[in-house]
Amino acid sequence: MRTGETVLILQARRGSTRLPGKVLLEVLPGRTMLDLTLERLWAAALVDQIVVAVPEGPADDPVAAEAARAGAKVYRGPEADVLTRYLGAAVEFGADTVVRVTSDCP
User: What's the DSSP call for residue 16?
Assistant: First the structure.
């Protein structure tokens, strides 16, 4: 029997150096990479919550809005410290187990 909250934390941001804004690029008609990835993650049977960890600041407001539109919870944390963002999301949403996923691997 499983106990505690299993929280899937998806890190997403617009600030990619190789392909800026890739998480919001349309990969299917009307579907962003983030939207498609979240749709697939909702099929995970053993996950209690999905949280998208997004950097603070207006540059990533569209990422936070897309995550919320797709039904995920959103945690905002420091852009330069991904580990702090993950930890903050885990603590805020009561995770006993964390599943880490990147947003650019649909």
Answer: -
Domain parsing of the chain, residue ranges: 5-102
What whole-number distance in Å separates Cα of residue 49 and Cα of residue 75? 12
Contacts of 105 by beta carbon, 8 Å cutoff, 6+ apart: 37
How many other CB atoms are found less than 10 A from the CB of residue 13?
Answer: 22
Q: Give first-to-last CA distance, the chain, whole Å.
A: 30
**pTM listed for this prediction:** 0.91
Please provide the CATH number assigned to the domain covering 5-102: 3.90.550.10
pLDDT in tens, 65-83: 999 999 999 999 999 999 9
